[in-house]
Each structure stands twice: as structure tokens, then as C-alpha cells.
Amino acid sequence: MANDPAASLAAAFDPERFRARGHALVDLLADHLAGIAARPVLAWLEPEAQRERFASLLAAGGGEAAFEELARRALEGAIQLHHPRFLGHQVTPPLPVAALAELLTAFLNQSLAVYEMSPAATAIEAAVVRWMAGALRLGERADGLLTSGGSLGNLTALLAARRAYTGHDVWHEGSAGGPRLALLASAEAHYSVSRAARIMGLGREGVVALAGDERLKLRPEALGPALDEASRRGLTVFALVANACSTAAGVYDPLEPLADFCRAKGLWLHVDGAHGAAAALSPRYRALVRGIERADSVVWDAHKMLLQPSLVTGVLFREGARAGETFSQEASYLLGRSAASEPHNLSHRTLECTKPALGLRLYATLLVHGEALLADHVTAAYDRARELAALLEASPDFELALPPESNIVCFRHRPPGLADEEALDAHQERLRRALLERGELYLVQARVRGRLHLRTTLLQPFTRARDLAALLDALRAAAAAI
Amino acid sequence: MANDPAASLAAAFDPERFRARGHALVDLLADHLAGIAARPVLAWLEPEAQRERFASLLAAGGGEAAFEELARRALEGAIQLHHPRFLGHQVTPPLPVAALAELLTAFLNQSLAVYEMSPAATAIEAAVVRWMAGALRLGERADGLLTSGGSLGNLTALLAARRAYTGHDVWHEGSAGGPRLALLASAEAHYSVSRAARIMGLGREGVVALAGDERLKLRPEALGPALDEASRRGLTVFALVANACSTAAGVYDPLEPLADFCRAKGLWLHVDGAHGAAAALSPRYRALVRGIERADSVVWDAHKMLLQPSLVTGVLFREGARAGETFSQEASYLLGRSAASEPHNLSHRTLECTKPALGLRLYATLLVHGEALLADHVTAAYDRARELAALLEASPDFELALPPESNIVCFRHRPPGLADEEALDAHQERLRRALLERGELYLVQARVRGRLHLRTTLLQPFTRARDLAALLDALRAAAAAI
């Protein structure tokens, strides 16, 4: 191979090899999908052993035939998101059509930095952004961008908020010597909000974290006093971050009174709807996001509730022009002078320069399956959480943390005689570990009101009542075995 | 379809539909690849017309049969990176095996936030990071992460540098009231460096931009005076950013004397090797990155010179522990207390929380084709730039901006009688626009020493001498037609 580099390169790009390998991979994946229920959700292996497995494969050298072996090991060593008993984190089993759209995306490798490098893909992103903004009813002036995940989305939106703050031009003047800026946010906000604040140089005091009510929702009446208190501490609040919904317990903040407050105080309202903005699609659950249309910015991950492979996050602005104002810079090798003069060159809007066609998968989904499929999925998932909650409430040995609003359910196993809180925490952790290593069923954990709870996000379209019952039984069996 | 949501969802995940659609897509792409040379590089359409094309397709409603129509339109509306006459930006035609790895990645949708959600993928990322660090000879203690692009990579590395700065703990204390921090960087640095500084709240003065020598390289002897001058202006410099290579003209800064300077002054050395770190793979060109092994951090995009679809960027730290120190936060629903206690949970290291298996495509490439293929590709691409430079120097109607060090070549068409600099700038712009709209050949532009130049990155494995000659002829023809 080393003897003729040009021939080796040509062979690596050979269309017929691609065709044969592509067909074989499609068959492998289709067979895998067809046989998913017979597999464990997770074939547990300690991190070091897993690491060795792939280090040695690479060290052994591969060659043409090794791709299939890699694919098999990647399938075996994966958590099976398509499994009915995947009840874990907010990561969705991707729709097959969306996965195939990713092959098209990767093959074309368009870069959304500039229109020339991605003509169709730029148009596709525009269509997807318009659809997202429309679903949230953000109005005719709305616009936005797609970016690589909710954390980057929150950072992008909060940078826009800082840019919009007129008291001090941090983008140009820097923050040393300026006011001590801060955000108001729920104590339940995702860690990426505090991470964004720290990245921006706001420090630990850059997020004023507000305790929620008994349902963990932001209390509108607490905002005024919090703002005054922040001011007394020398902080200048420029934005409020609301959850729709929160990560740990899946709770929606009351957006309408929060929007009223922000309007009255001149604050930017950012809604972290990474997970739960999708409720906007469901006639049954739309009321949960009432008021989201008044947000200045919203983050919405399509890889959570919209059945898309990660990462594809919408950052949506009610005043669309904000999308082009967050970053403003010159780069003669790439861009013209301003976002306004070239709205089709999307790297004005995104932290990314080169950026793949993130929107293609969602566009393909909407085109082939229609919005109704996504709406039905959201409704079914949220319904299922209520079904699980009812089951837990009917079970004296389980305790529901709070009635689910979204499809996230937190609960504890509470065996008779175990009342000490520390011991209860440890008990949940042991149960979860037992299930993890057994691999028949996957769920996660989170602290709610300071105590450790078991946690599930019901976003698997194939989870049925029998699987929910099996979850409780598996936990009871694990508890009995401890 | 709307009548039975569960049946619609089941149908959308049907393995046999996936199989049929997958085979059809693979055939479409293989045929496209086989026929690539007969297509235009770019079938130019104005942004608005393109936008309408995809808005109307979606509005018309699609259904099962629409995926193929979408794929056809996406292919037609794409810039053809696999075309021998794609001579534009630093975005590579992806290897077919890497594109297929993306299908596997998307289908499995593993999240690298935590090991449990991505056991094999986490091991694969570790192998890829180890390979990258090894190629750069960063030593046994090196470690790192993969992230969504070079801009995010530069931000991540510079956050690590700020964290390592011991004079003021910006992460916890915030920057208001702290010193006015700044970076030293080449005036040729990519815009993402200044963007990162502004995101971090350093403002426009957060980057002290140094003019290069006549070859646009950082002058080591200028660093001491620049540091003193920054200090006089009240700035506290905490890091130096070097290019390997620069974006516009593809120039390598002299890393060894820069490393000496940083060691003497206690500064963090960050090397932006997004494009040119790949020279480390080539025996012929390795000397260009001599000293890179002394960097505190390096950013290296596999989607530039390693034939990978975007985005996959390595952020590599000579002191591997730095990888886990950049961000430090708690999130009970996800993470344990510290990166050191759980090195396998990668969201301690990355700005992303959910993150796809970015490393799988590069792992597959190394496994199937071997490192030698990538090394040969780099050598051939860099060789080709010298070939083009020779051709330009032999042509009195062309002017080379500077002898290429990498595979980026900047030059001007200089017709007899056109001497005015403004007129020459406008002439280059007109030529480029003519080529763009004709679509037979794609190249870009950049300012070098303030003047507009034509610019090409020769990273197309199928570009040959005849294509380079065609480039000059096409420019001459366009000039004659103006």
C-alpha cells in the first residue's frame, strides 16, 4: 500500500468498495434493529476493559476487512437506545430516516460557515429554524441557528443576552473594570447555564440561583426580592433563565409571569427548552410552555424529544436580528463585513466556523414522517410518565418525588423499615448499580430536594406498560438480593 | 397515519423500511461518487432561490417516497468536495469509510457525556486521542478530548489556559475586579481566537495581535517587547497562541523559540494546529511543526487534513490532567464529583454535555486504511501546493503571495497594465465571482498583507497537474471576458 500513495488514495475512495461496505453496514444495522429486544440494554464492562478492547483492535492493525469487526464491537459495546427497556438519560433512539440523513450529511460534508460551501444545506437549516420558531409561535420576526448541542446553545443565547445589555459593552470593552454581571436562574437549571456564566467570566456569583416552590418551579414573587438582593450585593442582573423543563425532575417554570417580570425590569428572558420545548408540538401538553413565545431566546435540542441523533440544537430568537449580532468579527478569508449584509453566511451566527448540515436529519424527518409523528411521540411519552407515576403511587414500597409534568420521573424505592435518609440514598445507588451491571434495564439517578432518587426519562417509543411493571419488579428483586 | 400514533411510530422504526431506504441511499451515493467528474463543482443558485427550493419541498408535504427526492436535491445543491476541481476552503472530501462510520454513529446515538451511555464510544475516543497525542509526540502524560470543531477547541484550550493562570481565579471569582487578561497572538490567527477572547470577556484588547515577518511568521524577538508594552497598557498576558499553520496564507509560526519564550515567561503556549498539525504525520513536512510537542495545548481538526467529515477536533494537553480541570462543576443527574475520580465520564472535559461519538470515523479510518494513507495524503497535498507555486512563478501574469509552506496557496492575477492596488483587489474579486457562477472550478479569496488574493487549499486527493493548469486557464479566460 505504501508503495503507491496515489493508488491507495484512489482505492480508499473507490465507489464500488463504498457500495459494498455500505450495503453490508445497512444490513448489519437493520438486523440489529430487528433483534434489539433479545439483547441486553447494556452489556456492562468496566471502563478499563472496554478501553483495552478498542486499543488492542487498533494496535493489531486492521485492513479492509476490519470495518465490519469494528461495527460489531461498536454495536456490542453500545447502550441500546432502541431497546424498550432503555429508561435512562434524555438521549433518544434516533429514527432510522434521521440516521440515514446523517450518512448523506457526512458524505457531502457541507460546511455551513458560508453559503458557497453549503447551498442546499443552508436552505435546509433555514427551513428547520423556521419550523422550530413556528412551533414555538415566536412570530414573524423570529430567526435563529442550529448548533452543536444545548450547552453551546445556552452559551450562544447568553452571549446574545450579554450583547443586548446596554450598560457595558463587554464584547468590545471586556469585563474587567465593568459591572459584575449576573443571571437569575432556577436552582434547577442545567449545569451548562452556570458553565456558560463561568466561561463568560462571571464567576460563581454570576448565577443567582433561586430555590423553587414545593414543585421545584421558579416562584415569580421571589424574583423582585432576588433582584434587589443581587443589586445590594453589587451584581448587575442582565438576564433570567427559565427551565422548560428542568433536567433533574423535568419541571416547567411558569413562563408567562416570568415574561411579565422580565419586561417590567428590562431583563432578557432565556428559556432553556432543550428537552421540554417539544411540548409545544403536543395539543395535550402545549399549555406547559405557555409564554415561551415571549422569550428573547429559546434553546431546543432536537436530539432529546424529536427522535434525532445528536447533536442538533436550535437557538431561536424572537427578534431574529439578534441571531447575527451575538458574534461580530472580520475574517477576510471567509466572511463579508456584517451578518445583516449576508444573512446566508451562517458562521456570523454560530460559535462554530465549519459546521455540518445539522438540520438535514430533522428536515428529512419532517418531510418523510411529518410533524404529526413527533407530536404523537411527545404526547405518548408524556402520557407514559403519568402511567408510571400512577403505578408508583399505587405501590407502597415506592415513593414518587413529584407528579411528573414532562416525561421525566424521579422516585425512590422505600423498603419497609428503611427510614434514615442517608441510608435511603445509599439504597437507591445500590439498586441502580445492580440494574446497571445486570443490563436488562437501564435507568439513572438524580438528587431531588437534596436526596438521591432513581430517575427515568420515558422517551423510548417502544416502552409499554409491561416494561414499566418490569422496572418496579427489577428494583424489588435487586433490593431483595442486597 | 394520525389515526394510530403507536402504529405510525412502529412503522417509522421498521427495520425493513430502514434496510430498503438504506440500500437505495448507498446506491445513490456510490453512483454520485462514480460520476463526480462529470458534474459541476458547484451548480450556482442565489441564496433566495435555493431557500425557496427547500421551503417549497417541505411545504408540499412528503411522505415515504420523499426521502429520495430530498437526497437528490441535497446532492444537486451541494458543493462537490470530491470533485478534482474543488480548490476552495479547508474542508475535506470525506473518505467513504468515514462517512459510513457516521451512519453507525448516528444510528447508535451514544452520548459521550458519561461512560454508561457510550461504553465502546468512550473507549474509541480514548484511542483516537492517544493516537493524535502520539502523532504530535506530546509524551506519556498527554491526554485530551474530542470536540465539535476548531472554534470550540480553541475556546476550550484557552479556558484551560485561563484556569491554569494562578494570578486570579476567574472561573470562581469572575473577571470583574480582576486583572485585564490578554493573549499574545499572531495577527494571522484564526478569528475564533479573538472570538474566544471576547466570549471570555477579555474584549477587543484581550488579544494582542503581533505582525509577522515578511513571511507572516511570528517573530520571536518581538515577543518580549510586546509583553512589556502590554504590561505598560495594564494588561496581564497569560497565554501565547501560535499558528500551525495560519488560515489565510497557511504559514507556520516557529514553535521552538515560542516555546522557549513561554517557558521563560511562565506563559501557556497554545498551538492552533487545526489545519496544519497534520504535517506531523508526513516525514517530508514534519519539521514544520517542530516544537509542537512542547505546547501546553494543541487544537487539531480531523475534518481538515485527515479526510474526515466535520466536526471532529482534538484538543490535546501535554499535561493530560489539564483536560479534566477546564470545567469543574456538579450535576447530580449526571456526574460524580471530579474528573480525576471518573476519567471515563468525558463531559468533565468538554463544553458539550451530550456529545456524539466523534472519534468513530477517525478510528475506522485508521483501522481500515492505516495511518500511512493519511501521511501520504498530507505529503501529496503539500507537494501539490509547491507544484502550483512553481506554475504560478513561471507565469508572468500571476503573482504568488508567498512560497507555500502548507497546502494553502495565495496568489493574484496581474494582467499587464493593471497596477493600481484597489483595482487589482477588485479584479481578483471579479475573477472569483466569475468562476463561482460558472461552477467548473471553485476557489476562494483572502487578504494577504492587506491586499485581496485568490486562495486555494489543495486537499483534494484527485486534483492533478492538469487541474492546476486548468485553474490558471480559467482565470485567464475569465479575465479576458471581463
Short description:
The first copy, chain A, is of the alpha/beta class and 482 residues long. Chain A has helices at residues 5-12, 15-34, 47-59, 66-76, 96-108, 119-135, 150-164, 170-173, 191-199, 220-232, 255-265, 302-305, 360-393, 421-438, 465-481, and strands spanning 143-147, 180-186, 207-210, 235-243, 268-272, 297-301, 313-317, 398-400, 408-413, 444-448, 451-457.
- Tell me which protein chains meet in the greatest interface and how many residues each side has: A-B, 177 and 174 residues
Tell me, what's the shape of chain A?
Answer: globular
CATH topology of the largest domain in chain A: Aspartate Aminotransferase, domain 2
Radius of gyration of chain A: 24 Å
The number of distinct helices of chain A, counting runs of at least 4 residues, comes to 15
Overall number of structural domains of chain A? 3
Which regions of chain A contain 5 or more consecutive residues with pLDDT less than 50?
none
Count of extended strands of chain A: 11
Helix content of chain A: 40-55%
CATH architecture of the largest domain in chain A: 3-Layer(aba) Sandwich
Largest sheet of chain A: 7 strands, mixed
